[in-house]
Each structure stands twice: as structure tokens, then as C-alpha cells.
């Protein structure tokens, strides 16, 4: 992490991003946080400033990341504020109501834009920024939901699947330029976004657990990380089910 000291976080008010930012500032990193809700963003920044080293920069700005035309300005603000950018962490997104999306093409497209097209736009800017200086890291949150389309959440899953495939291609493109791309695939995480779920059982993780896994993967320059670890094997089993059987299952 010594060369990964200045981190630009998109979606910084999400529970996972906030927990990760806490760990980063405690390890001496500077953070520029971008979030949609100004009150939540202010609370996140106040919390990070208390934890940060005296010489670290902790700042941010409010933005609606669906407005992709504003993304270049956010990069400029972060670079000016911190002096440079070493890591871009893409953590924004929504968990759509599947039934509403099934009933409305407009709702489906809105969710695809938020969960796939907007993150892809940011990753593209980050890739070009880092390639130009032959250094940097892109860390992006996808989801285990993107590993296979399921009737219960295929709109969200297809967005995350598209983003994950994009990141895979980006990783292949940027490897020769000393730019690392890390894809994070969380399973069930106890966050406000999953407030309506029954969270009993061993499959659920806390944002703090996921954050530790993310920071560890950054240090080790991992490519794809499932969190908690056992989701890699759960999804391997789900992907292995023949389609002629899978299409009749209720998952």
C-alpha cells in the first residue's frame, strides 16, 4: 500500500465503502470521497477525519454519479485536492426491486444505467488516467449475483455481470501498463441496502469483514475476490448446474 496512498472513492457513503475508507485512512492514506447524499457524505468525512493521520487529506464532494458527463470533473477535483490519484475505488450502486423492473422497461434501463453503465464510465476514465502514467489501481465492487442470471434478481445480476466482464477485459488490457484491476464480488452483506432481507444464517457478512478482505486484496494485488471466501465455491456450484435443470429452479 506504500504506493497506493491517495484514494478516490465513488459511492463513499455505502456501508462497504465507508468501512474500507476507515481502514485506509488508519493506514495513512488520503481519501477523496464522492457520494450522492450530502448529509451522509458529511458524516462519513467527519468520521474519516477523526481517524486520519495529521498529514493525510480527507475531503470530498456530493455528486449524482448517474450524470456521467460530470465524472471527468470529479477526477480533476480529486487530483487537485490530493495532488494525484493512486487508487480509484468504485462502490456505488442500488439494489433494484425485481418485480418493478419486470413491469417496466424504463425502470430496468434506469437500474442498468446505475449499476453497469455509470461504473463502466468511471472505470474507463480511471483506466485512461492510470495508463497515461503507467501506474495505479482500480478497485470495483461487482457481486456474486453477476455470476449467473436468476429469476429473483436478474436485472441487478445482469448489470453486475456486465460490469464484471468489462473489468475482466480492462484487467487484460492494463496489465502491460502496470495498472492493476481488482474485482470484488460480495455475497450477502448486512447493509442498509439489504434492510428488507431476512439476515439469519451463516452466509451474511458485515461491511467491516468485507472491508478487511478488500484492503488485504489490494495489498496482495489480487484479481478477483469473493467475500466472504466461501462464495467462490457456492457460485461455482450454481454455475455448474445444467441450464435445462437450472431454468426450472427457484433461486
State the low-pLDDT regions, or none.
none
> SSE order, as H and E?
EHEHEHEHHEHEEEHEHH
What share of the residues does DSSP label as strand, in percent?
15-25%
Overall shape: it is globular
Describe it for me?
- The chain is globular.
- 49% of the residues lie in helices and 17% in strands.
- The strands form two sheets. The chain has a seven-stranded parallel beta sheet with strand order 3-2-1-4-5-6-9, with helices on both faces. A two-stranded parallel sheet has the order 7-8.
- It contains nine helices and nine strands.
- It starts with 5 loop residues before the first strand and ends in a 5-residue tail after the last helix.
- It has 251 residues and is α/β, with parallel strands linked by helices.
- Strand 5, helix 6 and strand 6 form a beta-alpha-beta unit.
